[in-house]
Amino acid sequence: MGVSANDRVSGQIVAATVPVDEADKGPQLVPPDSLADKIRVQEYKQDGYVGSQVFFSDLTFGDVSQLGAMSEQAAGSFQLSLKRSGDFVTLDGRADLESVPATGSDIQFTIAFPARIATTNGTRDGDSIVSWKLPAGEKSTIRAEVRYADPNTRSFAGWAGIVGGVTIGVAVIVAALAWMGRNKEPAVGSGRRNSSSGSDG
Q1: Would you place residue 177 in the very low, low, confident or very high pLDDT band (cuts 50, 70, 90)?
Q2: Position 74 pLDDT exceeds 50
Q3: In this structure, are residues 83 and 90 in contact, taking their beta carbons and an 8 Å threshold?
Q4: 139: Cβ–Cβ under 8 A, 6 or more apart, which residues?
Q5: Strand locations in 19-171, DSSP E?
Q6: In the 8-state DSSP scheme, what is residue 1?
């Protein structure tokens, strides 16, 4: 999965096994109703494996925690959360794979962030990408921390700049109107005096 600078998450999940017979369709992932418009599920059939492939986009950090509930068979075995505290974003996860057979299992998780990863217990695949190879038959933890600007703070700063620009613009207009009004008054007064002089003559 990948995390954008706006704290939105996109990616894909593949859950597949070697079929035991022709009728075996492998693990079937079902998105929760609350994420139905952000998740697309299709059949996976490749390299002798069958199952489900899930594509998701524009998820919030809160939405990510629901991804682990898409499989009834694996409910509670994989938990993932993304949380922000100021400019720090923390990824925490737990994988309970004790019931998964070690033979023939390949479980991996990879995530990309919009900035350099500060700390992690995974394998770095670059400054901003980290992955975990999760051993079957064991419990594993996932952790990473990255620092980048809170998008809500950036939005507020941009709005403050717009408001400041509008305020300055209004002040300039008011000043211009005051200047125009000040310069018109003598002209009007002068015109009245000339008219008065004409009537006396």
Answers
A1: low
A2: yes
A3: yes
A4: 94, 95, 96, 97, 98
A5: 39-46, 49-59, 78-85, 88-96, 107-112, 117-120, 123-124, 129-134, 139-147
A6: -
The Cα–Cα gap between 157 and 66 comes to 32
What is this structure's pTM? 0.73
Average pLDDT over residues 48-63: 94
At 93 the three-state DSSP class reads strand
Predicted confidence at residue 76, as pLDDT, reads: 64
Q: Which phi-psi region, left, alpha or beta, contains residue 86 (left: φ > 0; alpha: ψ -120 to 50)?
A: left
Q: Helix, strand, coil proportions of the chain in percent (round to 5)? A: 30, 35, 35
Looking at per-residue confidence, does 95 or 74 come out higher? 95
Domains of the chain, residue spans: 2-149, 151-201
Contact 31, 52 (CB under 8 A): no
Helices (H) and strands (E) in the chain, counts: 2, 11
Residue 58 near residue 38, CB atoms below 8 Å: yes
